[in-house]
Design brief:
It is built from 8 helices and no strands. The protein is an all-alpha fold. The protein folds into 2 domains: about 100 residues, RNA polymerase sigma factor, region 2, helix turn helix motif (Rna Polymerase Sigma Factor, Chain: A, Orthogonal Bundle), CATH 1.10.1740.10; about 90 residues, Arc Repressor Mutant, subunit A, CATH 1.10.10. The longest helix has 24 residues. The chain is elongated and about 60 Å long. It starts with a helix and ends with a helix. The relative contact order is 0.12. About 10% of the residues have low confidence. Keywords: DNA-binding, Sigma factor, Transcription, Transcription regulation. Belongs to the sigma-70 factor family. ECF subfamily. This is RNA polymerase sigma factor.
């Protein structure tokens, strides 16, 4: 959703009032950090990516098109910055991290709905961690941050149809991982 106050503040920044950018940072810092954290799964890395995202947005503010919301634009920058960070980290470590084994003392037929909210959240977080970074990001944007298919498409550069198909497939993967975790089997 477009915010007219964001546009006014951006104009002030572009006219030389650089301190007005603090409003933008303050308004979006939690959302940008949360997105980065969901994708990276590490507080320190998420803080670094969030900071880099705001710096990139500031440096490229003149390229911002007012027909989109600033929130969507900064999400796109954060998404790209996080993916670049992940690629760099993968090259540095030269091997992908293996997924840990999850073993829980739950009976095999215990449905998720009988668990309390804290346990459900823990199991869902474990299942999310089994997904590839890009899949985790799509689920985060759509479900946890409640972005529309159109907004997810704009942020990721995918078509709306591709976003719908990917989210459908990722949901099935997530259900599979969740079932494995609930049964106490190895992932």
């Amino acid at each position: 959703m477009k915010n007219e106050l964001d546009d006014i503040v951006i104009e002030k920044v572009l006219q030389g009032n650089t301190s007005a950018y603090e409003y933008i940072v303050h308004r979006y810092q939690d959302k940008v950090y949360n997105l980065a954290f969901r994708l990276l799964g590490n507080q320190q890395d998420a803080e670094e990516v969030a900071q880099d995202s705001f710096v990139k947005a500031y440096r490229n503010l003149s390229k911002f098109h007012y027909n989109a919301s600033f929130g969507t634009w900064i999400y796109r920058i954060t998404y790209n910055t996080a993916l670049t960070f992940l690629k760099k980290r993968a090259l540095e470590t030269s091997s992908l991290a293996t997924i840990e084994e999850y073993q829980h003392p739950l009976s095999e037929d215990l449905p998720l709905s009988t668990l309390d909210k804290k346990e459900r959240k823990r199991f869902l977080e474990e299942a999310l961690s089994c997904l590839k970074e890009e899949s985790r990001l799509l689920i985060t944007l759509f479900y946890l941050q409640e972005k529309s298919v159109e907004e997810v498409a704009e942020i990721t550069g995918m078509t709306k149809a591709n976003v719908k198909v990917r989210i459908h497939r990722i949901r099935k993967q997530l259900q599979g991982h969740l079932m494995i975790i609930l049964k106490g089997e190895e992932v």
